[in-house]
Amino acid sequence: MQITATATSLLDWQGTTLALGIEEKAELTGEIKQLDEKLSGAISELIADEKFEGKPATSVSTRLSGNSSFRKLILVGLGKLADLSTDDYRNSAAAIAKLAKKDASLGINLPIEGDKVAITQAITEGIHLSLHQDNRFKSEVKEDQKSQLETVELLGLAGQEAAIAKAETIVSGVLLARELVNAPANELTPITMAETAQSIAQEYGLEIKILEQAECENFKQGMGSYLGVARASDIPPKFIHLTYKPQGTAKRKIAIVGKSLTFDSGGLNLKTGGSGIETMKMDMGGGAATLGAAKAIAQLKPDVEVHFICAATENMISGKAMRPGDILKASNGKTIEVNNTDAEGRLTLADALVYAESLEVEAIVDLATLTGACIVALGNDIAGMWSNNENLAQELKNAAQAAGEKFWQLPMEEKYFEGLKSQIADMKNTGPRAGGSITAALFLKQFINDTPWAHLDVAGPVWADKPDGTHNGGATGFAVTTLVNWILT
Ligand code: BES
Ligand code: MG
Ligand code: ZN
């Protein structure tokens, strides 16, 4: 499907379906009014018949008589134009694309108020993302379930070709993240995740290093924390390190670290049915976003050096499994009493963060489906954010805002580290139930010295049970766009 920007006037547009953005309770004016006249009042009739008020997230549509230059008319409500955010454009475009997906060609006409580049980008993202359906694991897909859209024309956005292309590159990263998360744990293993990273490296010319178990044992004091988690799996751990280096001198050097549990059974603190074990293939959502961002960044080529790190493994059970009470030693020498084997993400991230900091980067961002507690606190649509550096937190908030992805900063409440004190080791891996996502962040902080660092708990938003906004349920590809925006700032 191809998206183009066109200078064609609303009155001259020809195709299958035309979608118009309608302001709340506004009179039809300008070209829309002229089009209404040309269509013998079809637009005002539709508005009256359906009592359509133009409220946000509402839409109506109708078929037109044979002699008009298009066959279907869609009206989407935009609310008050003054309140319209970039993300509203993204969601309106997504809603339109879903309504027109059985049609061959679509023209979209939205009133453009604000930054044309950002709006074009958001609209393009909304269209592509909302039409994506992951059918890789179905033996048969009925024709009528697939999108039939061949062309989408953005009216009034002529000249914005670069913004469309940029959005499409970011979308390629978001869709990779979705496909990685959707893939079941028998398909997407640490081995195949490493192979995916290899193919990104090959296709786009990134440097890649996969540290095998022996190399992980030899890194500094040994990645005992990460390898403790990996112990019960029959599949070897793969510590993935992709590097993007710009042609000239880099203005900044940063690292992104994604939790990459291709499956989290809980380990000996086994998860029970109904506890979410059924969807724990998504526990590499942070790593998937990391690889998705790598794919986009490799194509966008900013003047920033970026290290993408995924300590991939599974959290399984076997006679070799780490036991509750075991003490692990991370590569920075810190010892951890594992009082809960299901708090495994932080154990893998501990060594990944030490590794990231050893690269002498100026900032580290980790993303992890880390705690159910973060979902309890913020629900499914909002990710948690913690940082030791307010500048970095603000940069990420700005990037997220432009991406239409929601993050909420929570406190790094040092006092709560009390809950992680161990009688026998430097710390335990879990504290009390209360403030569970905060103690998880405080645990991670033990593995960062003084590099500006942010931790993003994405446990809620990487997965959706139902279609909504720009996705159709399942993996959402959350955080890729925020990461890319951040790297580009
Ligand atoms: N992967 C889970 C967190 C999670 C839960 C992600 C639900 C997505 C949806 C993580 O490894 C985990 O099991 N966390 C435990 C921590 C607890 C043992 C302190 C949790 O949240 O229950
Ligand atoms: Mg767990
Ligand atoms: Zn987990």
**Rg, nearest Å:** 24 Å
The percent range for helix content is 25-40%
Bound small molecules, by name, code or SMILES, are: ligand BES, magnesium ion, zinc ion
Strand fraction: 15-25%
* Head-to-tail CA distance between termini: 30 Å
Q: How many distinct domains?
A: 2
Based on Cα principal axes, name the global outline.
Answer: elongated
CATH topology of the largest domain: Aminopeptidase
The biggest beta sheet is recorded as: 8 strands, mixed
Q: Give unreliable regions as ranges.
A: none
- Number of helical segments with 4 or more residues: 14
Strand order of the largest sheet: 7-8-10-9-13-17-14-15
CATH architecture of the largest domain: 3-Layer(aba) Sandwich
Which CATH top level class of the largest domain fits?
Alpha Beta
Mean pLDDT: 97
Please describe the topology of this protein.
Layout: E1 2-6, E2 17-23, H1 30-38, H2 42-49, E3 59-63, E4 72-79, H3 86-99, E5 105-109, H4 116-131, E6 151-155, H5 161-182, H6 190-204, E7 207-211, H7 213-218, H8 224-230, E8 238-244, E9 252-264, H9 285-300, E10 304-315, E11 327-329, E12 335-337, H10 345-358, E13 363-368, H11 372-378, E14 382-387, H12 390-403, E15 406-409, E16 427-428, H13 436-445, E17 453-457, E18 463-464, E19 474-475, H14 480-488
Parallel strand pairs: 1-6, 2-4, 2-5, 5-6, 9-10, 9-13, 12-16, 13-17, 14-15
Antiparallel strand pairs: 3-4, 7-8, 8-10, 11-12, 14-17, 18-19
